[in-house]
Amino acid sequence: xxxxxxxxxxxxxxxxxxxxxxxxxxxxxxxxxxxxxxxxxxxxxxxxxxxxxxxxxxxxxxxx
Length: 64
Description:
The protein is an all-beta fold. It has no helices and five strands. It has strands at 2-5, 15-21, 36-37, 48-51, 58-63.
């Protein structure tokens, strides 16, 4: 199963990823190839995705 998150109000040129962790304090890991860059208009054309982590997974949107 996969967790999907759609973001609005992103900043153009920044790259976003959905980090996952087994604890609320991390570390949060973004899968290879799962980073999505916002276009010049500040739009993400794909959902952020991460593999689902059992019943106690934690997720965080990361920006770089």
